[in-house]
Design a protein that fits this description.
There is one protein chain. With 259 residues, the protein is an alpha/beta fold. The chain is built from eleven helices and five strands. The chain has one domain (6-255): Rossmann fold (3-Layer(aba) Sandwich). Helix content is 49%, strand content 12%. Strands 2-3-1-4-5 form a five-stranded parallel β-sheet, with helices on both faces. α1 (17-40) runs parallel beside α10 and α2 (57-65) crosses α10 (219-235).
Length: 259
């Protein structure tokens, strides 16, 4: 199997608006069917999103979840750990956010922070982030063994496209909340992050929880590709047929005059 390298995900064919809207509607309906099956069959799933700043994670999450029932959908934006969390094992806060039965949980950044930002900025020692690859693989293996479906997506944008989006976030007032000094600090560390991403792919793209890298310079194409990966990962092998009406429910509906 060839190694995942970001340079291989920089060519993307733009999607026109008409095609995008039609395909998005189809994918969102497929997500609705998948969610219904998860609710009816007590299934669970978690989706981990990683990628460059301004890579389009928020836009993908919005399209992925906007037609789903929010009672069975959870989105966790992951930032720096709190003071209490810094005193715990770094995976502890993710154990507390795992999906319950019938839930689909999305992590906007994830437990991979230990081998990414904590590695690059020195918040973890080489010994700590070095052993984290095996810890993460074990964490994901435990979830998979317990019946949790896992989808891991990485959104890759080129430096030029990232700069264009960062500029837009400064020029459009209502988008300024999306950016800050951290974006520019991280931008200055692009080479170090690229090395960390490649190590992450090499050491944690497993059979039970593989990484999917998405060429994200075109937002519409990236959203469709991301949703297609989620539909495939969450829907494979899942019975999406409608459940039968129970005899008791049918009897009650007939008595009420509904049927």
């Amino acid at each position: 199997m060839s190694k995942l390298r970001l340079k291989h995900f920089e060519d993307v064919i733009p999607v026109d608006r008409k095609t995008y809207k039609a395909r998005l509607e189809t994918l969102q309906h497929q997500m609705e069917l998948i969610q219904a099956a998860y609710i009816c069959r007590n299934l669970r799933a978690m989706i981990a999103l990683e990628g460059w700043d301004a890579g389009g994670k928020g836009g993908l999450i919005k399209r992925l979840t906007e037609t789903l029932d929010p009672r069975y959908t959870e989105v966790w934006p992951i930032g720096a750990p709190t003071e209490i969390e810094r005193g715990e094992h770094y995976l502890e806060r993710f154990w507390r956010r795992l999906p319950d039965k019938r839930e689909i949980t999305v992590f906007d950044r994830s437990w991979y922070g230990r081998v990414l930002v904590e590695r690059v900025d020195g918040f973890a020692t080489p010994a700590q982030w070095g052993r984290a690859y095996d810890e993460i693989n074990q964490f994901e293996a435990v979830q998979a063994a317990d019946g949790v479906r896992i989808v891991k997506l990485f959104l890759h944008v080129t430096q030029g496209e990232q700069d264009r989006r960062l500029k837009e976030r400064l020029e459009v007032p209502w988008k300024r909340w999306k950016t800050g000094l951290d974006d520019y600090h991280n931008r200055s560390q692009r080479d170090a992050y690229t090395e960390a991403y490649h190590d992450m792919f090499d050491k944690t793209s497993t059979e039970i929880a593989p990484w999917t890298v998405i060429a994200a310079d075109d937002k519409k194409a990236a959203r469709l590709a991301g949703m297609e990966a989620v539909v495939k990962g969450l829907g494979a092998g899942v019975d999406l047929s409608w459940p039968d009406i129970s005899p008791e429910l049918e009897k009650a509906a007939k008595k009420a005059g509904v049927l």
